[in-house]
Automatic annotation (TrEMBL):
Stated name of the protein: Zn protease
GO MF term set: peptidase activity
GO annotation terms (biological process): proteolysis
Keywords from the named record: Hydrolase, Protease
PANTHER family to which the protein is assigned, alphabetical: ANTITOXIN HIGA1, BLL0069 PROTEIN
Pfam families listed in its UniProt record: Peptidase_M78
Source organism per UniProt: Acidihalobacter ferrooxydans
Residue span, IrrE N-terminal-like domain: 51-174
Amino acid sequence: MTDTKKPMAEANRISSMLNTVLGADRFPVKVDELALEYSRQCLADSPIDTVRGEDLESFDGLLKANKARSKWLILYNSATPSEGRKRFTIAHEFGHYILHRHQQDLFECGDGDIETGDNNERDIEAEADLFASTLLMPLDDFRRQVDGQPVSFDLLGHCADRYGVSLTAAALRWTEIAPRRAVLVASRDDHMLWAKSNKAALKSGAYFATRKNTIELPHDALAHSYNAFDMCDNRTGRAQSWFAREPASMPVTEMTRVAGQYDYTLTLLLLPEAEWQGARHDDEEPEEDTYDRFIRNGQYPVR
């Protein structure tokens, strides 16, 4: 029986080691080299022996042990055009190796193979993603990049470049430390693909749930095709346009940016602190936003 490892703690421990050896200005993480060297140095009885790209059709990444469990292999989809996605996939599989290698011999991750499992108390795919995000974008360094600066997609683009990840991944990371309520929405053809609310927004009821319905963007949203000739990508409007239960006086700042490599538009919504908490009832469905649903269906390209 092995001790349960915590994704953030394990990633932060490795990050501290990298800071000591390489210094603080060491990004982006060379995660393929890290996986090989760390496992050889620290887990020599069962190291990662190979990390390589192959043209994989049914999944994004794979972690596999040999029959003797004396060596491990990481594969990632070399056909993926995004280097950030490849880097995240390797980090995700490295996360499985660090956290879950005693549980099974094979991990195939991506598309329909990634399932979060509603009823699992501990979901290994979510844990591997958390490990990867923490390893590639440590919060202490991330805070240093953004503290004291107004958020913008240009600022988040700087973070994406520094860490070698997608703009989407950098934006999601920022929402975790946002000083106020924040919601990130990805949309295509005037409908939401997914949305992710930070904890403050979720607790106040500012989230989008799509268990049963497809949600269209508000007609006055910057990302809606009705506003195709509106040249601005940042404005302040009424929060009720997005969240009907917000007070009439509540403003929302809306920023948009096309994520070209994924063929969707990102919208970042920023709201002041909530003036009230939404009513909660015991018979309500558990809160779930569209990001969680998108992840569950294996469609979200966070890499």
